[in-house]
Design a protein that fits this description.
Blueprint: H1 2-5, H2 8-32, H3 37-77, H4 92-134, E1 145-152, E2 160-166, E3 172-180, H5 185-203, H6 209-220, E4 230-238, E5 243-249, E6 254-258, E7 263-267, E8 286-289, E9 296-300, H7 302-305, H8 316-327, H9 333-348, E10 357-364, E11 372-378
Parallel strand pairs: 1-11
Antiparallel strand pairs: 1-10, 2-3, 3-4, 4-5, 5-8, 6-7, 6-9, 9-10
Helix pairs in contact: 2-3, 3-4, 4-5, 5-6, 8-9
Length: about 400
C-alpha cells in the first residue's frame, strides 16, 4: 500500500472512495431485498463504525503528524525551544517534517557562524588596537627636520609600519617605514615583532641603521614562516653633523627633492627584505643622502604606487615623482604631504583600495630651525574611498 503512504491526495481519494462505495453498496443491498428494521439498524451501525474508523485513520495519519510539525514551527517562529521531529510518514507531511529538520539544522549552523564571526571580529578589534598602540603616537624631536607621517590599513589589521626612535645618547634619530607581505592578522603579527625588535636594537646603542637591521633580521628570521617577510627602509639622522643616512631592506624607492636643481632623485633602497635569509649583513649597506637646506625626502609603501583608479590604471612611481617635483618647494613637510595626497586622491577618486597606505615626508629646514613632527594613524577605514579618509584634506 505504498501508493497510499506517499501522498495525502491519494489517501483522501481512497478514503472518500471507500466511504462512498460502502454507502452505495449498502443502499443497493437494502433496496434489492426486503429487509427488516433490525437489518437497517445493523447497516447504519456498520456505516457509522466505518466512519469512525476512517476518521481515526485520518486523525493519526494526517492530523497528528501535522500538529507535531506545526507545534515546532510555532516554537521556532516565537523564539521558544524547538527540536527536530522524526518523520512518521513519507507523504507531504513527511516532506515538510524533513524540510523543517534541515532548515533548523542550517539555522543552528548559521547561528554558530554568527557567534564565531562575532568572536573573531572581537579578537580582530583587539589585534587592531594592539597594532595601533605599537604605531607611534608622538616622536622625538629631530633638530633640522620637519616631518609628517600618516598610515591607513586596508584591513582590520594591516601590514604597514613606521616609527621614530632615538638612540640612548639622543644624537641619532632612526626613522623607518616597512611593509609586511599581505595584510590581516599574520601581517600584523610580523609588523609588531619587527617593531619590537627594532626598538630593542636601537636601545642597545647600535651605531648605524645597518647594524639595527642586521640584528633585527637575525632575531626575526628563525621565528617566522618563510612565506612572511617585511620590506623596509631605515633612515638615520645624525643631529650633530646634520647628515642623513639610509639602509634598504628590499623596500620601495627613496624619493629626494633637490631644492636647488628643482628635481627629484629616485634612489633604489636596495638590500633584501627582513626574514628572507638568516644573515643579511653582506647584502645591505648604509649610505648617505646628501641634503641641503630646503631638500625633502619621501618614504612610502606600495599601497600608494599600486593604487588604482576606476579604469584600472596604477598611480605608479612616475606620478608620485612628478607630484613631489611639483610641490617639493613648499616650505613645510605638511604642505608637501597635503598637496601630494590631493593629487593621489584626485587620481584614484572613489575607487576603494585593497592595500595599506603609508607615507612619510621629511623636509630639511636647517639646524637652527628646530624640529617638529606630525603623526596620524587612521583606524579601520578599508571601505572608505581614498578621497574621504583624510589624505589631502
Amino acid at each position: 500500500m505504498k501508493f497510499l503512504r506517499d501522498s495525502l491526495t491519494k489517501k483522501a481519494l481512497f478514503l472518500f472512495t471507500l466511504l462512498v462505495g460502502a454507502l452505495v453498496g449498502g443502499a443497493v443491498m437494502l433496496f434489492r431485498e426486503q429487509v427488516e428494521a433490525v437489518s437497517v439498524n445493523l447497516f447504519l451501525g456498520s456505516f457509522v463504525g466505518l466512519l469512525v474508523l476512517l476518521f481515526l485513520l485520518f486523525l493519526f495519519d494526517v492530523v497528528v503528524p501535522l500538529r507535531r510539525v506545526a507545534r515546532q514551527v510555532r516554537n521556532l517562529l516565537t523564539g521558544k525551544a524547538y527540536h527536530r521531529i522524526d518523520p512518521m510518514t513519507i507523504d507531504e507531511i513527511g516532506m515538510f517534517t524533513h524540510f523543517f529538520n534541515e532548515i533548523t539544522k542550517d539555522l543552528e549552523k548559521i547561528s554558530y557562524d554568527v557567534k564565531e564571526r562575532r568572536r573573531m571580529s572581537s579578537e580582530l578589534d583587539i589585534a587592531a588596537q594592539i597594532q595601533r598602540d605599537v604605531l607611534p603616537k608622538e616622536a622625538p624631536m629631530a633638530p633640522g627636520l620637519d616631518i609628517v607621517a600618516k598610515t591607513r590599513s586596508a584591513a582590520e589589521v594591516g601590514g604597514d609600519s613606521f616609527d621614530f626612535l632615538q638612540s640612548p645618547d639622543g644624537n641619532q634619530t632612526f626613522i623607518y617605514i616597512g611593509d609586511v607581505t599581505g595584510h590581516g592578522v599574520p601581517a600584523g603579527l610580523v609588523m609588531v615583532m619587527v617593531d619590537t625588535l627594532i626598538h630593542a636594537a636601537v636601545s642597545m646603542g647600535l651605531a648605524s641603521s645597518k647594524d639595527v637591521l642586521v640584528h633585527t633580521n637575525a632575531m626575526l628570521t628563525p621565528r617566522i614562516s618563510a612565506r612572511l617577510f617585511m620590506t623596509l627602509v631605515m633612515l638615520r639622522w645624525d643631529a650633530s653633523s646634520q647628515k642623513m643616512y639610509y639602509t634598504g631592506g628590499g623596500h620601495e624607492h627613496v624619493l629626494v627633492y633637490k631644492s636647488k636643481e628643482e628635481k627629484v632623485e629616485s634612489i633604489r633602497s636596495g638590500g633584501i627584505a627582513l626574514g628572507m635569509i638568516p644573515d643579511n649583513s653582506k647584502i645591505i649597506a648604509e649610505k648617505e643622502i646628501p641634503l641641503e637646506l630646503g631638500d625633502a625626502i619621501v618614504l612610502y609603501t606600495d599601497g600608494l604606487t599600486e593604487a588604482k583608479n576606476q579604469s584600472g590604471e596604477m598611480y605608479g612611481l612616475e606620478r608620485m615623482t612628478a607630484s613631489l617635483k611639483k610641490y617639493g618647494y613648499l616650505p613645510s613637510a605638511e604642505s608637501i604631504f597635503d598637496h601630494m595626497t590631493q593629487d593621489f586622491s584626485k587620481f584614484v577618486g572613489e575607487y576603494v583600495q585593497v592595500d595599506d597606505t603609508t607615507m612619510i615626508v621629511i623636509k630639511y629646514t636647517g639646524k637652527d630651525a628646530g624640529g617638529k613632527m606630525k603623526l596620524a594613524i587612521a583606524a579601520d577605514e578599508s571601505r572608505v574611498p581614498n578621497a574621504e579618509w583624510g589624505w589631502g584634506s
